[in-house]
Amino acid sequence: MSTTANTTSEEVSSNEWEFIHMSEQEEDLICRMYKLVGDRWNLIAGRIPGRKAEEIERFWIMRHADAFSVTRNQSKAKHS
To answer: Which residue range or ranges hold the Myb-like domain (predicted)?
Structure first.
């Protein structure tokens, strides 16, 4: 008799994410840090007390979702 472990994916569609509220100061710091270090979310989160890298990345993706989809669509159009 063979048993298999039930595995669940921790990935969640961005459509299911709850919006993460950041203060104006946090948003400003995230934007400035992103310009300096790129998507090094752990480094950015280390500058914002109480925030995790995953929160910062999710906030960034949700805030810039329209820009990401436009870029992807432009890229697809060029390759068609």
So the answer is: 18-66
Give CA–CA dist 60/30, Å, rounded.
8
The Cα-based distances of 75 to 44, 46, 63, 78, 79 in angstroms read: 28, 33, 20, 5, 7
Q: What is the pLDDT of residue 62?
A: 87
Query: What CATH number does the domain containing 36 carry?
Result: 1.10.10
As for how many domains the chain has, the answer is 1
What pLDDT, in 10s, does the model give residues 60-73? 998 887 665 555 55
Residue with tokens 């068609």: 80
Domain of residue 45: give its range.
24-69
- As a whole number of angstroms, the distance between CA 76 and CA 56 comes to 28
